[in-house]
Design brief:
With about 325 residues, the chain is α/β, with parallel strands linked by helices. The chain contains ten helices and 13 strands.
């Protein structure tokens, strides 16, 4: 039997009132990468589906990408940044270790009323932020909320490691969440999960308190992404499939009720494996990883905004968002648009 959706528990329903995204101008193609490491367009395309990714300018930080996406989301929602009460930025590539990137975003937007903080849940971060914001709005604690997934992964990639550098890109996506009125769409269900036993599979080992970067280890590139790709792949498929099923069931829906799946954009083969098991048609899955690669916390948010602005989602449609990332973490949400 399906678990009752959150909105049946007497809390305020919550909707997505607007979305936005921002991608840096500079495009780095697979051919460009082949000049840096021993790889080829053919290898990257067949193993991942990625053709190109965006790279932020040197003086463009994660907060700048986040603020651009946020402005677009606020504009679409018709909500001035001054009227935001909550800002959550999901990122693993913060401008600084402290303060949070959300503080910089609050300042850049002039959103002085908003309490602002970061969430660190890697590629699942945007959906973690969504559930946290939803809960705070649903219980009446906050009104208008901005959630952003933003990454400048190019600053944390080892550009000499072909196992990882071909996968990632920079970008940001955002959504404004507000209380839903009668007859409007709403978030029907959301799930989050964590398995800290698998933390070693995908991490940035250096730069934190466990392994500060010093003169003696500076050459080892410890403050860059390290990954056991094949293991991550297996976990990603299983976790995203389970999270998808849970969100659909908790929303009281069947897979056939889903009009559009917006999965984390890490690898086309991971997405194909999930679709096979979920029995969703490939036409009902939104994919843009060919253009942007894996932008971690930004990926689902950018895809949601592109799907929205391209008219792939109509009022009343059911959409499924699902993500997976370092931690390991996973999360999903079923939404009536
Ligand atoms: C990384 C990934 C694309 C590698 O694909 P794979 O099919 O598993 O490939 P393997 O790791 O088995 O490597 C196969 C060979 O390709 C080589 N290779 C790895 N990267 C390469 C590259 N960019 N170009 C050319 N060859 C490459 C490997 O060295 C290996 O060579 P070997 O057999 O001589 O040792 C895949 O494992 C993956 O996508 N994993 C999940 C990663 C992910 O999504 N992370 C983020 C999660 S949010």
């Amino acid at each position: 039997m399906a678990t009752a959706p959150t909105t049946d528990l007497g809390f305020r329903p919550v909707r997505i009132a607007g979305t936005g995204s921002y991608l840096p101008e500079k495009v780095m193609t697979n051919e460009d990468l082949a000049t840096l490491v021993d790889t080829s367009d053919e290898w990257i395309t067949t193993r991942t589906g990625i053709k190109e990714r965006r790279i932020a300018a040197e003086d463009q930080f994660t907060s700048h990408l986040a603020s651009e996406a946020a402005k677009a989301a606020c504009e679409q929602a018709g909500i001035a940044p001054e009227d935001l009460e909550l800002i959550i930025v999901a990122t693993i590539t913060p401008d600084t270790l402290t303060p949070s990137t959300a503080c910089y975003v609050q300042e850049q937007l002039g959103a002085e009323k908003a309490v602002a903080f970061d969430v660190s849940a890697a590629c699942s971060g945007f959906l973690y932020a969504m559930e946290i914001a939803q809960s705070l709005i649903a219980t009446g604690g906050r009104g208008n909320a901005l959630i952003v997934g933003a990454e400048k992964l190019s600053a944390f990639v080892n550009w000499t490691d072909r196992n990882t550098c071909v996968l990632f890109g920079d970008g940001a996506g955002a959504a404004v969440l507000t209380p839903a009125e009668e007859g409007q769409g709403r978030i029907l269900s959301s799930t989050m999960g964590t398995d800290g036993r698998q933390a070693e599979l995908l991490n940035i080992p250096g730069g934190g308190s466990a392994c500060p970067i010093t003169l003696s280890n500076a050459e080892e590139k410890l403050a860059t992404l390290a990954m056991q790709g094949r293991e991550v792949f297996k976990h990603a498929v299983n976790a995203m499939r389970r999270a998808s099923e849970e969100a659909i069931e908790q929303a009281g829906l069947k897979p056939a009720d889903i009009n559009l799946v917006i999965p984390h954009q890490a690898n086309l083969r991971i997405i194909d494996a999930i679709i096979d098991r979920l029995e969703v048609s490939k036409d009902d899955v939104f994919i843009n990883l060919d253009k942007y690669g894996n932008t971690s916390a930004a990926a689902v948010a950018i895809a949601l905004d592109e799907a929205n602005r391209q008219g792939r989602i109509s009022p009343g449609d059911h959409i499924l968002l699902v993500a997976f990332g370092a931690g390991l973490t996973w999360a999903s949400a079923a939404i009536q648009w």
